Amino acid sequence: MTAVSVRVPAKVNLQLGVGPIRDDGYHDLVSVFHAVSLFDEVTAAPAGRLEVTVESAPYSRVAVDGVPTGADNLAARAALLVAARLGVEPAVALRIRKAIPVAGGMAGGSADAAAALVACARLWDDRDDPALTRDDLLDLASDLGSDVPFALLGGTAIGVGRGERLTPALARGVFHWVFATADGGLSTPAVYAECDRIRAADSRPGTRPQVSEDLMAALATGDAKNLGAALVNDLQPAALKLRPSLRRTLAAGRDLGAIGALVSGSGPTCAFLASNDEHAAELAADLDGAGVAETIVRASGPVPGATVV
Ligand code: ATP
Question: Which residue numbers delimit the GHMP kinase C-terminal domain (predicted)?
Answer without folding.
Answer: 215-288
